[in-house]
Amino acid sequence: MSDIAIEPAKVSDLSAASFEDLVAEIILRLGDNPDREGMRNTPKRVAKSLAFLTEGYHKRPEEVVGDALYEQSHQNMVLVKDIEVYSLCEHHLLPFFGKAHIAYIPDGHILGLSKLARLVEVYARRFQVQERMTEQIAQAVWETTTPQGVAVVVEAYHLCMMMRGVQKQNSKTITSAMRGAFLEDQRTRDEFLRMTTSAHEPL
Questions:
Q1: What are the angstrom distances between the C-alpha of 20 and each of 40, 47, 133?
Q2: Which residues does 83 contact at the CB level (< 8 Å), separation at least 6?
Q3: pTM here?
Q4: Is residue 83 a contact partner of residue 153, using CB atoms and an 8 Å limit?
Q5: Which of 60, 120, 131, 171 has the highest Cβ tally under 10 A?
Q6: What 3-state DSSP class applies to 141?
Q7: DSSP state letter for 14
Q8: Which residues contact 70 (CB under 8 A, 6 or more apart)?
Q9: Active-site amino acid positions
């Protein structure tokens, strides 16, 4: 599986207590008191939050998919829209968030639908750039399900653009990645894009 791999042992070399000390030092250097009421538990909370938000480093797509591939002759597009995405920009460690739309065309097997959302989490819960994350999600679906084609679109808002820098609150970044039939067949690609951009209607 093509991936950026970091061994858990290397990540865990830094103990929880050491991590909390580093967070306390950052708070102190920024001009506040980590020992004051209201912040005494902040280093512990930050360490716990970051561990959760980066747990994707410890997960592998093939382990997430497991045995959730089922023999099925269905050969039309399967699309899961509006999968929530929360990640951290690797440049500023600020959040970016939005939605992912994933489609694939089965080739003898279908994947449990929840596994597509789980694959998104594998790559979203890391320090990321949206462009790479989109490609990684597409490649993970492609390699674990061996379908006729895969398409991924991610739409996200980046707090590094909204809270700082250019401070453009309404800008949205859209990235896409295609494999197989979606890359080779314009009509298939167009069908996917129409379905992902169609108006949201209540069921």
A1: 11, 6, 28
A2: 99, 100, 101, 102, 116, 117, 120
A3: 0.89
A4: no
A5: 120
A6: helix
A7: S
A8: 109, 110, 111, 112
A9: 89-92, 130, 158, 160
CB 133 within 8 A of CB 155: no
133 and 34 belong to one structural domain: no
Do the domain assignments include residue 90? yes
**DSSP string computed for 59-126:** --HHHHHTT-EEE----S-EEEEEEEEEEEETTT--EEEEEEEEEEE-SSEEE-HHHHHHHHHHHHSS
pLDDT tens-digit map of 87-133: 999 999 999 999 999 999 999 999 999 999 999 999 999 999 999 99
pLDDT exceeds 80 at position 2: no
Range of the domain at 174: 68-197
Q: Are residues 124 and 188 in the same domain?
A: yes
Other beta carbons less than 10 A from residue 125's beta carbon = 20
